[in-house]
Design goal:
The chain is α/β, with parallel strands linked by helices. It is built from 7 helices and 7 strands, in the order E-H-E-E-E-H-E-H-H-E-H-H-H-E. It has one domain: 3-Layer(aba) Sandwich (Rossmann fold), CATH 3.40.50.720. It has a 7-stranded parallel β-sheet, with helices on both faces.
Amino acid sequence: MKVLITGSSCGIGKAAAQKFLFEGHDVTGIDVRPASLSHPRYSHVVCDISAGPLPDIPGVEILINNAGVQNSGRDIDVNLKGTISVTEKYGFGNAVKSVLFVASASASTGAEFPEYAASKGGMVSYMKNAALRLAGQKATCNSISPGGVTTELNRPVMDDGEKWKKIMVLTPLGKWATPEEIAEWIYFLTVINKSMTGQDLIIDNGESTDAHFVW
């Protein structure tokens, strides 16, 4: 299938691109950064989803909205408005079979930077709106809300021993997910799943059972 992934140059987006390529799919990535993958079935577009114009990419069958920023002063513009623009352009074509949003556990708990939490909460609400509209073409539409993930975006706390210890105390399973683990969830929900739609899955090692934000 033809897969479009935003924010594909690092972290969860890159891991997702690698998973789909490994499984034999064709992947197009959109990112503000240059490509960090080289593969005959991978193509890359450098683009800011919040600024546009978005490129024409016909025939998208799976759309993964992963691009995002954190505590940037532009969280609403990128995470929410940019994601809506991407979905409206690519998510409602005749070929589309599944749309997935990478939100955040903070969309439910609120335990993060204010604008970031609001942007991800809005994303989950928009996902439900999109799911209702996509149901008419028998396409699934869901979101995942990861808690802590071992990406470069979270390096400030991963490298701070005192803060990391506090986070682990508040995380019942005592670990964070890897980007590769989140990519497996993304693949399952967009390729294997045929019946769940309009749902948000919290994948946070139990973090949200005792929501505190440490930075």
